[in-house]
Amino acid sequence: MKRQWVLRVVLMVCVIWAGRGLGWAQQAPDTILYNGKIVTVDNHEVNADVGTIAQALAIRGDTIVAVGTNAEVRALAGGNTKSIDLKGKTVTPGLAVTHDHPMDWDPLNPLIVKKVVTDDMHIERFLNVPPDEVLQQFPKVLEEAVQKAKTGQWIRISLLYGKEYRWRGQIQPMLGRQFTKQMLDLAAPDNPVVVRAGFVGLLVNQKAIEEINNYYRNVKGSNAPHWGPLGANMERTGVGSVNYRGVEQDVLYPPEVFREIVRLGTSWWAGYGLTVNSSALYTAGALNAYSSLDRNGQMDIRIPWSWIGPHPDFFTNPYFRAGLNAMVGAGSEYLWLIGVWPAGSGTNCTTLPGTSPEVKQREPACDFAPGTPARQALYDHIKAGGRFTGMHTGGDKDIDYVLDIIEQASKDAGMTPEQIRAQRHGYDHLAISPRPDQVARIKNLGMILGGWDIYIWEGRAQQVLKDYGERAAQWVVPRKSILDAGVRQSVEIDRPLGYTDLTFFTVLYSGITRRDQDGAITAPQQAVSREAMLKSATLWGGYYSKREDKLGSIEPGKWADLIVLDRDYLTIPVDDILNIRVLMTMLGGRVVHLVPSLAREIGMQPTGSQVELGGPAAQW
Known about the structure:
Number of helices: 27
Largest sheet: 6 strands, mixed
Oligomer: single chain
Structural class: alpha/beta
Strand order of the largest sheet: 3-2-7-20-21-22
Distance between the termini: 72 Å
Shape: globular
Helix content: 25-40%
């Protein structure tokens, strides 16, 4: 009897192990990457430690299933596993940028627009030449476009700022000065014309104003800055700023056309190594485009989005507030709501006196000062349990107001400190903030911040130094102070990289060196290591998006979002970081960007907009 019992146990164990072995065989990885330098960024503490450096990883479906040595991971391969020899190349998590709005920049990419829009639809022209040549060529380009256009057909001319993105200060002021609404009216009386600046800003003629008004005539709140784009000044001068969003995304481009521009755009951004691009979605056109791509499985990056309130009065409705708060966190794996920016345009109002009276005269009013509609809207939103994030604001004075509102509204709602920190409120840009005393409050509230290092690259930190002095320069994206205080921070782009030679590594370089494009260094005490910048650009972007369980690091159980680089980010000379190329981007285990050289090595077809549309990556 005892012998029979032992035999039964042995047989049961054999069956279990046989079944387990069969299960392993059935669940072999789809893809293995080996013989590489896998920078996992799996250390979740608030420091500059990027964690484990591995040799190999395995992917099944859209998920990482193993990370380890070559021998450990390759032993998992099955008959259908594709194994890719990285030949020592560096792999990092996909880059998780925060505070960007790619749908704003995609229409400034000539390669994308020319692929989608033909002259039969409407006339698109681009000028990417120095300012003096813009003055010479624009009248000729406008005349040619008018001659080409049919009666009533839209004409759009984009004035870009150069491959190095240097000409913003000279070209943008041309709108309303050298180039005027009256000039467009005379040249194109029968065609709506929009002249788009290479970042924000536009100029429209009377015919365009009429078309825009016809579209927005029945839209309540049509004078709000991000929705209906017209106000009295624009009606008179034709000059706008962020109003281009509504003009392009809701009025000019038909939904199917804008959707295709954005589809190619998601792929283009993946070519920079981005797998996450957080953004406020300002228009119905933008939200519809991404929603359609998501439903059809055509998203090549993930978009954690923030809702931007077109008017503070929306938040007087408690049902509306509750509805928005209920949706936070909802969505798909590619498009989900992460928070709300109730109102305010974002200003650099500061407590500092300035180096001259003229500096303070130019300084804008604070958005959240006592008595402002935006202050009440933010208070109501936070008291109702909402998360505040995605807003661009920069000046320390306005941040005082924001912190006051968060603390008071949370207290009035009866929230515990733990509940407040769980919200992970945040704000972006950090142009002249936070001050050292504000960092402690931010830490206590559990906030997570953005970081606008491109501001430094453009030389605008030098302008802050000139306008407000050395003390203010120490508050321009003060990464070292924030890191030392134990506050998580992310990395923003917020620039139209598509027509430039800049990349996301230009942004990282700026945070590491505090050096601008002319070589000037501002407040070097606030520089952080390349490891800290990588962590901000990956793992902490996952925290910002509230999906750190799935995003931001290379760990088993997380989505297989990763990039392969052509050089070792962690060891190359710091100036060489500017030259890093992204050879491959994987999103959920799917290759969404692959340059020709690596494609030949691993036996796959090159892919992605940057390759297929003839961008620089097509030659790599």
